[in-house]
Specification:
With 473 residues, this protein is mainly α. The chain has helices spanning 48-53, 76-89, 108-114, 131-161, 164-171, 183-190, 197-216, 249-260, 273-276, 290-299, 309-321, 327-341, 347-352, 358-366, 368-373, 383-387, 403-414, 433-439, 445-454, 456-461; strands at 2-4, 7-9, 231-234, 239-242, 301-306, 396-399.
């Protein structure tokens, strides 16, 4: 005798009739018809011992797990009730153990009902498995499938990232030169040997740029497509060039058109200046998909050319506000600058905007309303805001002061044909340091300091010293 859930569980008395099934007393206590098989059939007539002598299986173990075609023994009733009571007491709820492959998990009456045999009168409805158990197994299957899918994605990612040839085949790029090396490989392979003075100079520029970024940049952010609009792509040679207006960008765009083979010219000087700035002639990195962008940022040679910040600023002022042909800049920016920063302007000046003074241009740059209304124009925007050198790792940092030497160095890394030469710049119209100093003579020390603070990061990142003509103290 056992106790299950606080009730006595007794072995049912032996009868001449059928065996007593869990939770079912034959109505009226009439005689049974022998042992009941789960498949819904009966062995009639004989005593319990007779049924077992005809090849019947022994009773199942405690817990009441029954295989199809098995027999319900009398001793399994109390054992199953005891197991259920123990689980309820432990707060686990009742769940019949899972059978082997192909085994049914139905209660005995469910087998009879499925076999087409009606239940005896007054019999309780068959009990299904708890819903929580079914939900738990479904969740486990979903978690397993998710883990397997994530694992396969990780394997695919590492295979593609560790196999550049496969990545290039998928993305449709192949830009190895005559030596079988990309420009990026040519650059860093040469660093393994004894460096020339030019190579050492560029290594120092990269190291300084990285050091300043680590010191002044606290939080790195992700790039957006707007950040990539100045990166010109050459898929033929594996190049990314961030163009900075007023730093020989017209000539570099001419060279890029020759390198990419998109134009009809073989000599950069044959390309008109206005055609070099047509956006459809060159592709920028912002036009590619995200996987293509990441592939090019990892594998292409990235270079940039910079210039002394105030010299570049004066060059932009001279080109956009003192040339009569730049009427678009006069209308868009000149009229606004004169209206806000000139006392008692003439009607002609307000209408034409073609006689902006340099100090008025400086006031416009320092006016908080300027950047609140719209970003700086690219011709006077800071280099670190155009090309993001603290997010994008540039392999070559060229300088306007050593333009010819640095340009030839890039073309050498690319493996360009000997016929491709970087155009020499005009010395007659170039803005020099002495010319820049003359423009700052009429700027007060207060506004000189504020303007320097505005362009300070460009001075630090690219190792330009404070101009001697500034009166910052």
């Amino acid at each position: 005798m056992q106790r299950a859930g606080g009730r006595r569980c007794q072995r049912p008395p032996k009868r001449a009739g059928r065996a007593r099934l869990p939770g079912w007393d034959p109505p009226g206590g009439g005689p049974g018809l022998g042992r009941t098989r789960l498949a819904g059939r009966e062995r009639g007539g004989g005593s319990p011992g007779a049924g077992r002598s005809q090849g019947a299986r022994p009773p199942p173990a405690a817990g009441g797990l029954v295989e199809p075609g098995g027999w319900w023994g009398e001793g399994s009733l109390c054992a199953g009730a005891a197991a259920a009571a123990a689980e309820r007491q432990a707060g686990l709820g009742f769940q019949r153990p899972r059978a082997g492959p192909g085994h049914a998990l139905l209660q005995p009456r469910q087998h009879e009902q499925l076999a087409g045999r009606p239940l005896p009168p007054g019999d309780p409805p068959p009990r299904a498995l708890p819903a929580a158990s079914m939900r738990r197994s479904r969740v486990q299957r979903m978690v397993l499938a998710t883990c397997l899918g994530s694992f396969l994605l990780v394997v695919f990612y590492f295979q593609s990232s560790l196999n550049p040839a496969a990545e290039e085949r998928i993305l449709g790029t192949s830009w190895y030169g005559k030596s079988g090396r990309s420009p990026l490989q040519a650059l860093y392979d040469s660093d393994q040997f004894e460096q020339s003075s030019l190579q050492a100079t560029h290594q120092q520029r990269r190291d300084l740029l990285s050091s300043v970024c680590n010191r002044y940049t606290r939080k790195r952010r992700l790039l957006t497509r707007d950040d990539l609009r100045h990166l010109v792509v050459d898929d033929v040679h594996g190049l990314l060039y961030c163009y900075v207006p007023k730093v020989a960008c017209t000539n570099w765009k001419r060279v890029m058109m020759v390198l990419t083979g998109q134009g009809k010219y073989r000599d950069p000087l044959e390309i008109p200046a206005n055609e070099a700035h047509v956006s459809s002639n060159l592709r920028t990195l912002s036009e590619y998909s995200t996987p293509e962008i990441n592939h090019r940022l990892r594998n292409y040679l990235k270079f940039i050319f910079v210039r002394e910040p105030f010299e570049r600023l004066v060059s932009a002022y001279r080109n956009k506000f003192t040339r009569r042909y730049n009427t678009a800049f006069h209308k868009r920016y000149g009229t606004k600058i004169i209206r806000r920063h000139r006392q008692e302007p003439s009607n002609e000046a307000l209408e034409r905007g073609d006689d902006v003074r340099f100090e008025e241009f400086v006031y416009y740059l320092l006016d908080p309303r300027t950047q609140h209304e719209e970003p700086f124009n690219e011709h006077w925007e800071r280099v670190h805001s155009l090309c993001h050198p603290c997010i994008i790792h540039y392999d070559v940092v060229g300088k306007y002061e050593t333009l010819a030497e640095d340009a030839n160095y890039v073309l050498q890394l690319v493996g360009a044909d000997a016929s491709v030469k970087f155009p020499s710049s005009s010395k007659t119209t170039r803005t020099t340091d002495d010319m820049t100093a003359q423009f700052f003579e009429d700027i007060s020390p207060f506004y000189q300091r504020r303007l320097f603070n505005l362009y300070k990061m460009d001075y630090l990142l690219f190792n330009y010293s404070i101009p001697s003509y500034l009166r910052l103290r």
